[in-house]
Design brief:
The chain is mostly helical. It has helices at 2-16, 19-25, 27-43, 49-60.
C-alpha cells in the first residue's frame, strides 16, 4: 500500500514540476525513485520491531553499542549484517 502512495506522490511531483525540471531530470529519474523503493521493499523486513528495539536500547542503555545491526533482509545471506554479534 505504501508503494502505491509513493507512486502517487512521485506522479504529483512530476506533474507539478516546471518544464525546466522535467527537461533536466526526465521522467526516467522520477520512475527510478519508485523502482528503487519497490526493490528495497522486496528485501526489507516485514516489521520495524527489531529496529525500534535497537533504537530503544541505544537511547536508554548507559553503555550503548557503537553500532547496531538488525536482521531483516529477505535474502538468504543478509550482506548488511554479516559478522554482527
Amino acid at each position: 500500500m505504501q508503494l502505491a502512495w509513493l507512486k502517487g506522490q512521485i506522479d504529483t511531483m512530476w506533474n507539478e514540476a516546471s518544464p525546466d525540471i522535467q527537461a533536466t531530470y526526465g521522467k526516467a529519474y522520477f520512475e527510478g525513485i519508485h523502482a528503487g523503493a519497490a526493490g528495497a521493499a522486496k528485501e526489507a523486513a516485514k516489521s520495524m520491531w527489531d529496529v525500534i528495539e535497537a533504537m530503544e536500547d541505544a537511547v536508554v542503555n548507559l553503555s550503548p553499542q557503537i553500532r547496531y545491526l538488525v536482521d531483516g533482509s529477505s535474502k538468504i545471506i543478509d550482506l548488511n549484517n554479516v559478522g554482527s554479534p
